[in-house]
Structure formats: structure tokens, C-alpha cells
Amino acid sequence: MNRFTGFVKKEFLHIIRDKRTMLILFGIPIVQILLFGYVLTNEIKDANIAILDHSKDETTARITNKLLSSGYFRLQSTIESEQEIEDLLRSGKARLVIIFESNFKKSMIRDGTARMQIIADASDPNTANMLVSYANAIVADFSRGLMVGQALPIKVDQQVRMLYNEELKGVFMFVPGTMALILMLLSAMMTSISIAREKEQGTMEILLVSPLRPVQIVLGKVTPYIGMAFINALVIIALGVLVFGMPVRGSLILLMAESFLFICMALSLGIFISTMANSQQVAMFISVFALLLPTMLLSGFIFPVENMHWILQGISHIIPAKYYIIIVKNIMIKGAGFLFVWKETLVLVGMMALLLLASVKKFKTRLE
Amino acid sequence: MEIVIDTVSKAYGNTQALDEVSMSVSRGELFGLIGPDGAGKTTLMRILTSLLLPDKGRAELAGLDSRKDFKALRNILGYMPGRFSLYQDLSVEENLTFFASIFGEKFDPDFYLIRDIYAQLAPFKKRLAGRLSGGMKQKLALCCALIHKPRILILDEPTTGVDAVSRKEFWDMLSQLRQEQITTLVSTPYMDEAVRCDRVALIQAGKIMDINTPAGVVDSFKPELYSIATPHIYQTLLALKEYNDTYSVYPFGQVIHFIPTDASVSPHKVQDYLTKKGIEAVSITPALPNIEDCFMELMQDEHTNG
Q1: CB-based contact (8 Å) between B126 and chain A?
Q2: What average pLDDT is seen over chain B?
């Protein structure tokens, strides 16, 4: 039997025999993508609001209907006086109170403007911001509708459009991020652990005292994981599309090719880690702390890179997941072709080459 | 000479693991490396297998330098590390197939070198290696080390932690390999196994104490040796350790072996001393030394001189 295929076959047997490995390989990705998709989305649905309508005319009724039919808001109560506002917000029964001034419709016809006020519970500022901007957008949309067909002078009208993700769906953010996180962790962690295990159990000693070259040992270890991680990438994309309605607007082949590149990059990182770690525990420790946290926090997965301190922004440039997330978003959501992602692709290729070179240099053909 | 070791030294920090070790082994020889734990046996074997580089000196196996020609060397070596180092989650058959494949071979149960050993393993071929008994594990490891027909076989304590019957069987297998012109270097902490070798080297604290045939080792034993039989082994040992005329005393199976400082010390004198110490029912008889006595004596020498 060919040396290389013999090695790969052995490695597959290791993976299949170890239930824990199988669970990590296939259980965790599915659980994670579902968790992130359902729980960690930052979109808000059915926020409770209260309405204080001093006018109670046709226009305020139409605005209220438009707000409540948007899906973002649910009417908690209609109130009659300003005194009730404080109580509602403080108790948390409502997160937003909308007040229409009296004679709303009349002043709109007479002066061209009418006033309404939005009071938000800003103890959670992100949510408050988002709710206010939802409400603003809905009201702005309504007033644009009023102007149509009227002989009024055309005003400059602020028009914000959320391109590509017009409904601001959180899943669109999380699917590429989760993909990056899972592929990164699995590939890097599993390879570094499996190489460290050979050292820990003493089998590396026999492998070294054999005609196998270091490249053969490393490639033999990594090959099965390329396959496994690739299957994972497919599963995650399938879940994103089927469960969360994520689009794949660009080429699926390009997306898979880029995922393949990212997997190979992560595996090189795993090999590099294993040249430093002599035990499975150390390998695990390095993988989790050097990969999990930076990938989650600094890749733009959860927090936008643009809002970070400049030092952290600098660090984010060496986080491979950042480039992969950009690539995946461009392909899946914007439908971009290779011309729009070649720079990021090049960065990943460069990182992989560098890591492989460093690993081959560091790989010991002896015990010390 | 198939293996030549020339003034090899190796230190780990302040610990001198090997101190100018020199020896040579001829083709087809079954050579034993005998010594207590921490004597430097494993270090020497790792240098020979090119896993470690010596600080000083050089080693040559089959004409290949362990430093320069390590790639070629790794093609002709069969190596069994001290710890059981096969894949415990693979079956007997899978381990053999894998180790055959990394040498570019196919696993063949009828291959003449492993045929007899594998015959014992065959009933368990589907069993995971981790679930084998200690003796079976070592037989499997030997099979894996032989599967590519190595020219030189290096076995690091293959019988440690193995029951007496399996130990004997293992040495029988090694004796058979001698007929195949495979040079075998085997280390062991068990001195009684030394008689199974063509030649042995006694190693202690990184130094070679003696290299000889087992018979030669016994012949070179000079001092008087007495066997002391008593129900009070522990008290007798303690008493004799304090005795002025004791050169060396150690438990030996069910009896105590005693070497006086010189031949003029008669058994009666020792008996009187023990009686004074309150130890009765002692019988002292002259004994013929076996190889363990020789090693004990050589190690004692090192202690008194060092």
C-alpha cells in the first residue's frame, strides 16, 4: 500500500473510533449555527410600545397602524396622560412610547409639519437606538407617501436604504461569522490535538524512526480533516439557506473554493500550533485562547471592526477569519465575483504559505 | 562491526546521562544492555535510532552515521520504544497494516520473520491494541518492528511490566531472530535476562561497567559468595549491613547473598555475629555466583570507588 494512503486510512480510523471527535466534528457545528441563528440575532421583534394620542384623528391612526403592522412593534397599551409614561417605561412594560401632539392632522395640512415624540427606554442603548431608528424609518416612509401627488415644493428628503439586507436580518451577519468560527476552530484545533496526541502517546517516536518524511506525516494527518471540514462547510451553508433563508447570490463554486482555501489555512495554523505543543491539553489551550476569542471578537463577526480602538483594529488585520467573513458576505449576500474578493483571497493564501513554511522549518525530525 | 559507538556523551542540563560510552556489536549478535532505571539505556538507544544527537562522540549503524545519514538509517531500523507506542484505538491487524504501509510494504501474516509471532496474535487480530494483555502488546509491538525486515532491531525494555511466562516467550522469539542475521540490541532492567544474550554490557550512571559474554561475566566473579537462609530475612539484612566485614549483602530470591570483605572471613564468624545480634536459625553455605551476583558486585564496586 502507498505510504500516504496508508497514513490517511489510519487517521480516518482514529476519527471514526473516537466518539468525542465525531461529536465535536459534526454535533457542535450544527448546534452552534442554530444557536447563533436563533438566539444571538440582534434584530428585535415585537417590542412593546405604548401610544399617547392627543389628537386621535385619521392620520395618527394610520401612522399607528403602520407602526404596529411592521412586525417590530406590538401595542402594549394606549394611554391618556403624560403621567403614565414614566411608570410604563420604568416597569419595563413598554420600551418605547410614541406621543402625537393634539390636532396632528390639522397642523399637518395647515403648516406642512406636525410633531410627534418618541421616548425610548435607553437603559439598553443598542436596543433603544434600533427601535428609534425603526420607528423613524416607518414614519418617514409614511410622510413620503403623503407627499405623492401633492403640489408641494419637493423637499430634500433623507433617504436611508439598508442595501443588501433591507430587513436588517441578523442571520445574514451570523451565518458567515459562524462559518468562519467553526471552520477555524475545528480545523486548527483537531489537527493540532491529533498531532500532539502522537507525541503524547509516544507513537511519534516510531513515526520518526521510519522512512516517513515530515511532510508525509503532516499531510497524512491533515488530509482527513480537510474532508471533514469541507463537509461541515456544506452543512452550515445548507442550514443557513434552508433554515434561515440566507441567500447565495454569488457562485456556489467560488464560495466552496474560498471555504476550501480557508480550511487549508486553518489547518496550517493547526500544524503550526502542534509544532509548539507537546500535549493535547496545551494544543487545546492554545487553540481556544489564541483562536476562539480573537476570531469571535476581532474578526467583525460580532462587533464591527470600524468601531474598534486603533490597536485592536491593527490586530484584526492578522485575524484570518476577518478576511474569510468579508469574502463570504460578498459572495453570499452581494453576489460578488472573484474580482471583488481577490485581495482577501490573496491575504489568506499568503497567511497559509507563511504558516506552512514556518511549520516545516519548526517540525522536528528528532526528539529535541 | 554492525553497530559502533564511539565515546558518546549526552547531558540533560546538569545530569550526565551518558559519559563517554564506547562499544560495538557485530552483525547478527543479540546484545543486551543491562542496567537499573536511569542508567542511560533509553538515551543511548535514542541516539542510535537518530532520535537524539549526542553532545560528543558518534554512533555508526551498518556503516551509516546516526547524525549525517539519519534518513537512510531510518529505513533499516526496527525500533520498539520503552513505552507501549502503538495505536491503542486500532486493532491488531490495523496496526500491522499501518506499520507495513509506512515502510511501503503490505502486511502479510505469512512473512517469515513474523509468522511465528503472529500465529499467537492471530486469534485476537480484530481486538483493539489497547485491550491486549501486556505480553500480547509486546508481541504485537515486536511484530510491527519486524514487519519491514529491519537489518538492526533496537528494543527498549521490551519485557518491563510483562509476566514471567511472556518474558520467556519473548526471549525465545529474540533467540530465533538471531538465525535471520538481524542484529538486535535489547535493554532490560532484569539481570536474569542477561544469560539469554550473546554478549551483555552493564551500564550504570551513564558509564559502561563491563562488556562480556554472560559466561565471561560469571567467570570474572572473584570474591567468596555465601548464601544465607533464614526466616528473619529483614533483620538479618539490617544486621549484616552494619557488620564490619560485609563487602556486600542483598536479598536474592528466598535467601540472602553475602560477600565478605576478604576470603578470611569464615561462615562461623558471621554466624557468631548474627547470634550476638539475637538472630537464630541461620544457615550459611557457600554459593556459586550467577550473573545477577556479578552485576550486584560490579555496581557495588562503582559505589565504593565513586
Answers
A1: no
A2: 90
As given in the structure block, the three cell numbers for residue A305 are: 471592526
- Chain B residues with CB under 8 Å of A6 CB are 97-98, 100-102
Q: How high is the pLDDT of residue A242?
A: 86
Distance CA A337, CA A247 (A): 15
Rounded to whole angstroms, how far apart are CA atoms B89 and B91? Answer: 7
Q: At what angle do helices B164-178 and B134-146 cross, to 10 degrees?
A: 20
| List of chain B residues whose C-beta atoms are within 8 Å of the C-beta of residue A203 | 85-87
Nearest to B52 among A1, A202, A367 (CB): A367
Quick: pLDDT tens for A113-160: 778 888 888 777 667 777 888 888 888 777 777 765 554 443 333 444
pTM: 0.77
* Closest CA–CA distance from residue A194 to any residue of chain B (Å): 12
Q: Could you tell me which CATH number the domain at B3-217 has?
A: 3.40.50.300
For B93, nearest residue in chain A (alpha carbons): A10
Query: Where in chain B are the domains?
Result: 3-217, 226-288
Give dist(CA B30, CA B153) in Å, integer: 9
Q: Kindly state the percentage of chain A with pLDDT values over 70.
A: 90
CATH of segment(s) B226-288: 3.30.70
Q: Among candidates A76, A170, A159, which has minimal Cα distance to A130?
A: A170
Q: Would residue B111 be called left, alpha or beta, if left means φ above 0 and alpha means ψ between -120 and 50 degrees? A: beta
Interface A-B, measured as beta-carbon pairs within 8 A, has a size of: 84
Instruction: Tell me how far CA of residue A217 lies from CA of A14, A213, B53, B73, in angstroms.
Output: 15, 6, 21, 18
Best residue in A1, A14, A212, A280 for a mutation probing chain B (most B CBs within 10 Å): A1
Suggest the residue from A8, A197, A206 to mutate for an interface test with chain B (most B CBs closer than 10 A). Answer: A206
- Among A210, A365, A368, most B C-beta atoms within 10 A, so best to mutate, is A210
- Categorize the per-residue pLDDT at B36 as very low, low, confident or very high, splitting at 50, 70 and 90: confident
Distance from the Cα of A286 to chain B's closest Cα (Å) equals 25
Asked if B42 is an interface residue toward chain A (Cβ–Cβ < 8 A), one would say no
Q: Of A358, A359, A330, nearest to A344 (Cα)?
A: A330
Q: How far, CA to CA in Å, does A283 sit from each of A200, A276, A363?
A: 11, 8, 15
Which structural domains are found in chain A, ordered by start? Answer: 2-39 (no CATH), 47-163 (3.40.1710.10), 171-367 (no CATH)
Under a CB-based contact definition with an 8 Å cutoff, are residues B162 and B154 in contact? Answer: no
Residue A212: closest C-alpha in chain B: B102
